[in-house]
Design goal:
By secondary structure, the chain is an all-alpha fold. It has helices at residues 2-24, 40-55, 66-79, 81-84, 93-96, 116-125, 141-152, 159-166. It folds into two domains: 11-55, no CATH class; 56-166, Cytochrome Bc1 Complex, Chain D, domain 2 (Orthogonal Bundle), CATH 1.10.760. Helix 3 crosses helix 7 (141-152) and helix 6 (116-125) packs across helix 7 (141-152).
Length: 168
């Protein structure tokens, strides 16, 4: 029994001490060009999904009308395109240097099938350690909803909104 308790105590103390030593000696990859830590993506996605599922609004307070999608396209061009890009155009040098790489949202990389409330939550509160800023306080609620509706409908935009996004 004593050996078991000794082993348990050593294990409980040794593992955190080794992790701390790994961090303090500079072995943790922190550069944007470095790969993710083991389980980093899984844990980050698990936490993000749980938080968004818990807090994101279930439906938009406005319709995905042509006027709202055009307004969303204008806001997107001014505030989002620098990192997330525009249709058919390469990502900016800033975006290429980010980790993780920002998804090309208007080209449908994983957002057209997301609930509009999820896009709203992400744009409002941002995502820590990803470069995704919080737009709460910068944009109005109406503007954030318009961009969220635009992203949720990026694969079926009316011609005026699509044209606005396609301009260089």
């Amino acid at each position: 029994m004593k050996k078991f308790l000794f082993g348990l105590i050593v294990g409980v103390c040794l593992v955190p001490a080794l992790v701390l030593l790994y961090i303090r000696l500079g072995y943790v990859p922190v550069a944007t060009s470095a790969g993710p830590l083991p389980f980093e993506r899984r844990l980050a996605h698990m936490a993000l999904e749980a938080k968004i599922t818990k807090e994101a609004p279930k439906q938009a307070p406005m319709a995905a009308s042509e006027a709202n999608l055009i307004a969303g396209a204008k806001v997107y061009r001014e505030n989002c395109a620098g990192c997330h890009g525009l249709p058919g155009q390469p990502q900016s040098p800033v975006a290429k240097g980010m980790f993780p790489l920002p998804p090309k949202l208007v080209e449908g990389e994983g957002v057209t099938d997301d609930p509009v409330g999820q896009n709203y939550w992400i744009a409002t509160y941002g995502i820590r350690l990803t470069g995704m800023p919080a737009f709460m306080g910068t944009l109005t609620d109406e503007q954030i909803w318009q961009v969220s509706l635009l992203l949720a409908n990026a694969n079926k935009l009316p011609a005026p909104a699509g044209k606005l996004l396609s301009q260089p």
